[in-house]
Design a protein that fits this description.
Fe-S oxidoreductase, 3 strands, mainly alpha
Length: 251
């Protein structure tokens, strides 16, 4: 529920108070996303720089766009979502980079940092995998895989080769874990774990996201019955009256 106007107003305050650079973080591959949605990131970055130049009266204003592929996670409304393939992620990021570099007026003031789609596929495999993915992990380890969280040690080819050797024994492949959409009826590997959120509520939120329905902040609206408050014995920190319900500093 944060609008583009909110962002521009905030960076205007920062630039007006002497800041010269901001960094914007994005994800590529969200459900219902199109190529045009990604390209609009470049438009937003130019608006940020234009506003910075306007309020500061200087041209040494910079904006860094940092973006990576979206990886659906368990216990979130996106646990049913398909993940964008590595090739599709890289193609969209390349289009975004070309648009930024092609902007003669603002392009040099926009930094572009991105994570390619391949690590995201492995992350997606591990994030929503079940016990059968253990065979893949073991094969990678036996093949010499170590410290894959570091770019210099990560080998996408090793992970894919090990997956191709082990998953067919179960009648599965990497796409089954990553790029396919799940149905409500499917039993998910983590369904037996209780994170405090009702599965029905997560499903409704997933449907809202597909319809691009904006959901208000429950601090200012009636309860959405997500399931967290009664199970976790928590209360919202700020009520509709604006009164603080928790201390702001340690006594």
């Amino acid at each position: 529920m944060v609008s583009e106007e909110d962002l521009i107003r905030t960076v205007a305050t920062a630039y007006g108070n002497g800041w010269r650079q901001v960094k914007l973080y994005f994800m590529c591959g969200l459900p219902t996303e199109t190529d045009d949605d990604v390209l609009q990131i470049a438009d937003m970055a130019t608006k940020v720089i234009a506003k910075g130049r306007e309020v500061s009266g200087k041209n040494d204003i910079r904006c860094t766009v940092s973006i990576g592929g979206f990886v659906p996670k368990p216990h979130t409304p996106f646990q049913w979502a398909p993940q964008l393939s590595a090739e599709e992620t890289d193609a969209r990021l390349e289009k975004l980079r070309e648009k930024i570099r092609g902007d003669k007026k603002y392009g040099r003031s926009i930094g572009f940092r991105y994570h390619d789609g391949k690590p995201g596929i492995v992350e997606g495999l591990l994030s929503r995998g079940d016990r059968r993915v253990g065979a893949v992990i073991r094969a990678v380890y036996q093949d010499g895989g170590r410290f894959d969280g570091w770019r210099e040690h990560f080998s996408y080819d090793r992970w894919m080769e090990c997956a191709e050797r082990t998953l067919p024994d179960f009648g599965l492949d990497v796409d089954w874990y990553t790029t396919r959409e799940r149905t409500y009826e499917e039993v998910l590997p983590w369904d037996h774990l209780d994170s405090g959120l009702d599965k029905d509520w997560l499903w409704e939120d997933w449907q809202d996201s597909l319809d691009e329905t904006e959901v208000d902040d429950c601090r200012w609206t009636p309860c959405f019955d997500c399931g967290v408050c009664p199970q976790m014995q928590t209360e919202i920190q700020v009520g509709p009256t604006g009164r603080k319900l928790l201390p702001l500093s340690v006594k």
